[in-house]
Predict the structure.
Amino acid sequence: MAVTAYQQAQREGQEVVRAAILDAAFRLLVSEGPAALTVRRISGEVGCSTKVIYTLFGGKEGLGEALWREGFGRFERRLLAVPCQDDPLADLRAGLGAYRDYALAEPDYYRVMFMGAMPGFKPGPEAAQAAKRTLEILVVAVRNCLEPGLLRGGTAEEIAELLWMAVHGAVSLEISGFFDPAEAERRYRALCSSVLTPYLFPPDERNEP
């Protein structure tokens, strides 16, 4: 059944309100911490009734999940925006660089996604699946290197998970202020290379991820 102009306007209006609520919730989380994420406080910031928030999100837990999914949606779009080259290994390394770029550009969302910025929050099945899609992008990039023999000695899933573990540790420390910004990128590249080196075949001389 075709959507009428009125129904489309209603939907667009809901999306505008939903975005405004999410923006307000995110600002409160960043500026005041998770204790500020109450339906009443957020409705006051937006200027809407609490009923609107319950209708759109189902309450505080739904808001938390929406923030979590928003972070992963942004992350996924950043990873998918990496230009493809004719070299699968270069594509993999560019993707690893995009991982760090996202964390530095969206550190507060990164904390929501990976660093427990909302204590006690547990994503539902659909939200968890949305997060897994970002790991699958890395798995595919590794698989594209395994198939022509640029990498060997492990499965795509194993190598991707090791890379993910390494880069997550690096960017978590960096956005927490533990590294000198002038040295952080060089060390990040060295870390990525050190994880990839045991799987490189034939020996690869391009040490930059």
User: Anything to note?
Assistant: Residues 5-32 form the longest helix (28 residues). DSSP finds nine helices and no strands in the chain.
